[in-house]
Amino acid sequence: MSSPSAGPVTDLAAIDGDALHALLGDRYDAVAAFAALLAAQGETRGLIGPRELDRLWERHILNSAAVVPFLGEGSIVDVGSGAGLPGLVVAAMLPDREVTLIEPMERRVSWLTEAAQHVGLANVRVLRGRAEEYWESVAADALTARAVASVDKLVKWCAPLLAQGGAMALLKGRSAADEVDRAKYALRKARLVAEVVSAPTLSGLEPTTVVRITRDAHSR
């Protein structure tokens, strides 16, 4: 793995280092290397805004890490990967899992490929395109997405990507329950059920909200 770039100052210094190392374990260096690269290049490459640097870890890195406990086993697909949140954070934390990143924008595909190589993530595959283009060729045991679209749209686009027994873990904000309510028809049509769960990371930080979507056990 390459050494992290120096990069601009972020909020890392304000976070409890011992707690952070306990959370990330032996994957701390890999996650930190990605965070440093994103801090150094994210703004100039149009991936994050300048105001995001002083909350990079809390708002983006740890927010992404919070989804890991909900990803079960098997292959992982991140739809609309963008800056690599959560896809590259997930790949850094789970080096033994195959992580496929699906992203339609060419410049972001280039970034994702370069960032994975920089951090030394051999478990990452980057595909350019929309989710619908990979319905026949990609099967996800676990699917995630962050800041891509509403729950109803994600269900329509991504349900066909789920393998038998596969599930989604979508990173959402405070409107998650309302989004799930508006997605009732799309969920029912896809024979899926959704629940909103709280995903804490470090003490003192606001928990992340995850919408977990699974097959409806009562559907035929």
Describe the fold and architecture.
The structure is a single chain. This protein is of the alpha/beta class and 220 residues long. The chain has a single domain (11-215), classed as Rossmann fold. It has helices at 17-24, 28-41, 56-65, 87-93, 106-119, 151-158, 176-182, 184-189; strands spanning 76-79, 99-103, 124-128, 140-146, 162-172, 192-199, 208-215. Strands 3-2-1-4-5-7-6 form a seven-stranded mixed beta sheet, with helices on both faces. The longest helix has 14 residues, at 28-41.
List keywords for this structure.
34% helix; 220 residues; 7-stranded mixed beta sheet; 7 strands; 22% strand; 8 helices; disordered N terminus; alpha/beta; Rossmann fold
Short description:
The protein has eight helices and seven strands.
